[in-house]
Every structure is written in structure tokens, then in C-alpha cells.
Amino acid sequence: MARYVGAIDQGTTSTRFILFDGDARIVAADQREHEQINPRAGWVEHDAGEIWHRTREVIDGALAKSDAEAGDIAAIGITNQRESTVVWERETGRPIYNAIVWQDTRTDQLVRELAGDQGVDRLRERVGLPLSTYFSGPKVSWLLENVDGARERAENGELAFGTIDTWLLWNLTGGAKGGVHVTDVTNASRTMLMDLQSLDWHDPSLELMGIPRAMLPEIRSSSEVYGQASGTAAVGCPIAGILGDQQAALFGQTCFERGEAKNTYGTGSFLLLNTGEQSVRSQKLLTTLAYKLGEDKPRYALEGSIAVTGALIQWLRDRLQLIDSAAEVEDLARTVSDNGGVYFVPAFSGLFAPYWRDDARGVIVGLTAYANRGHIARAALEASAWQSREVLDEANAAADAPIKELKVDGGMTTNELLMQFQADVLGVPVVRPAVTETTALGAAFAAGLAVGFWSDQDELRGRWSEGRRWQPEMDVSARERGYRQWKKAVTRSFDWVEQE
After folding, report:
1. What global pTM score does this model have?
2. Sequence-separated contacts (24+) of 22-28 with Cβ below 8 Å
């Protein structure tokens, strides 16, 4: 009898494989980083072949660290960095170009051309997203225009497109020798190419961006058996769950009801609010699929995507050399009692939600001769909390479902100063789970449900447990005064880049 469920967690900087037991506890894990490729300013690429190689390594590595064999694994789920785009040859499995990563901004001019006189929201009613460099569709269009012969080959059915989930699933299930070319609704909803109601590819979007249907994967649910694994130590295991990373974190946090929300603090931060069976439209947030379990009706979410949170702490470490490790930022921030009037808006490549300003750039404001390293560190941490406040305010207003608490996950949740400040500026409790690997857990939950390892969502709720809770302590007037100053600081980042 199978004892475990596995999860491939393919992220922006590394790939992990985690084995969970029936109580959703981690049994074994393995992790490998991959190269970050920056050929030009604003361009971010990954070697898709390296990612597939790392995926095989971590599956084999985790099994080697445990007592598990392939037959002990009931199913494997996949969760992935979303929007990152791969196009490859069906016959050979070779990518025609590096994967273009979600952070990449090379399509900025193309996006303006696609928007035309109708503006960036011309597709939003059907796909839930504004035209932006963030999403996969413009990346595919760029590849077809800039790689020799790509468009003709795509139209002839010789090329396949996929986000990273699709790329891994195709390779895991045989690759050029019969690999399954499938994505799930959550990843498809991040391409700008899927109709949110029909859950099929949206022909006007494909026509606008010049993308042939022949290269697109089939869209399926987030929890079903897609195929069996090959080429790894987990040979024969069903691949039975796919969720984009942020939706996986929502599912792993068991936010199954309308009005429940989670925030993930990683390179950027991503707040998702479950809106149930209703797809709520917002001009400032993204309407996205939360998940779809087999034949059940889809569940939707509002998302506030923040481009830079954890990446700002890395910047303090690597570029300013203000700290030697990311963990040191909390100690440095605690050397001062407040931010000293300093605010740091990290619009390094523009602002995502709720502004969607690609002309913005980072600013530090409020500096006086009194300010020191501690104030800069504290302002950098507070920027994550203020940005999260902005997107949560918008989500509450659009969905008319004010949250009662915010579940949190991601690397920055170990920073207790930040978590307390987050509770203070939101005015609601912030809750960190006992198992913080919620992204991988969400993929495991989806896969386990598909094969009956776990019976239903009620059982999953029973497997989730609280690790730490922070209650708001800040005076309301102080909170709102700080928020007004933050809003003022954000406006100082606007209109920096002059459009040609």
C-alpha cells in the first residue's frame, strides 16, 4: 500500500522534490538550484533543459534519502513558477530558446503595440488579466517573431508551447516518445490566452498575439491522473496534480472557502483571495483560477502580484552589501525603533498590483541626516507589508468578502519583525502554518485527492495545523498615518522611465 505523496516544486531559483506522509508531514526532500541568465538589462532566462535535469536529480535524491521506493508513492503533483515560457521541438524535445522567465520585461514595446488604442484592458473581460510583460502570451509571441523559422514551424505543428508545468509533465511522461502535452486551468489562466468561463483557449487572444493553436497544450483540471512517470527513480508513479505555485500555496493553506486568503513572501509576494465559484473582476487585481478538482466546478481567486519583496532583501545583501545574509536584516532593522520617516518603494522594473506601472522605478524617500543603515533595513522590510496592505485592500473591496485573518507562507515568514508589522498594518491576525512548505503541500494535496490517498477537502483541513499567530498591536491612527506616507512615497516612483 502506498504510504507517501510526492511534490515537484519548481521555482524561480531552484527545484525541490518533497515526500509527504498521510498526515502531511515531510518525510524527505531534496533541492537543487539552477542558473539565472541575464543576457541584457530586463531580460531573465532559464535553461529549460537544466530545469528538467534538476527535476530528475531531486526526485532521485529525495527517494535516496528515504526508505521509499516508487511503489510507495501514491501520486506526484507538480507546482511551478508561473508565466515562465518554454517552446520546444516536438520531435527532439529541444527548446528553441531559453525559457523566458516571468520577471522578464523584453516584451514591453510589444505589449504597448498589442494594447493599441483599446488599451491594456482590451482582453481583460474574458481572460482576467491586463496586457503586461508578466504573462506568457506576449513571451510566446516574441519567440515566434525572433527565433528564425519559429512561426512557420509552430503553424505546422512542429513546436510545442508550455509553462514549466507542461514542460516537466511532457518530459516526465516520455518526452519525444509520447509525452503528455497538458496544462492545468491555473497555469493556463496566467497566459492571457484562456477564457475564464469556457476554460478553453480564447481565439481573439490567440489572433491578437499571432499564436497558433497547434502549439498549445490541452487544458485540464488541477487534480486528475495525467500519465505515469518515467526516466526517474519514481518510474510508474501517477502524475496526478498540477497547480501554479501561488494557487498551490492557497490550496496547501486549505483556503477552500470564499473570503479565505493567503500571502506568499518569496522573490515577490502574491496574495490570493478565494472568491468561490464567482470570477470577480477588478481593474487593479488579477482574476485567476484558484483550482479545479476533477469534474467539480472551478473555483476562482483575486490575486495581488507584487514584483519585489524578498528580492529587495537580496538586493541589500548582494548590491549594497548592507548585510552578509538575508537573515541579518531583522537584527539590523531592530537596531532602530521605527523607520525614522524613511520609505523604500522597490519598483526595480515597474510596479505590479495595484498600479501596473512599467514606468515606475525604485525610490528611497524621507531621508534626513538622522537616517542610518537600520532605518534603510527597516524600510525595506516594511515595504513588503505596505505593498501587501495595498493589494489586500483592493481584494476586500472588489470581492466584498473582508478577510478575518491572513495565512502566510514563504521564506520571509521566519522574520518575526515583518510578520508583526504585517498584522499591525492589516489590522487582522497573521497566521503561519506548522508546515511552511505550503506550495509543495498544495501540489501533493491535489495529487493525493485524485488517487484517493486523501478522501476530501475536510480531511485536508484536518491535516493543516497552525504554527504561529501574530495579533495586531499598532494604534489605528498610527497605522493610517504610516499608510498615507507610504502612498505618498509610491507616487514618487511614477513617470521615471520616458517612453520613446
Report:
1. 0.91
2. 22/453, 22/454, 23/463, 24/435, 24/441, 24/444, 24/445, 24/460, 24/463, 24/464, 25/435, 26/435, 26/437, 27/66, 27/68, 28/62, 28/63, 28/65, 28/66, 28/68
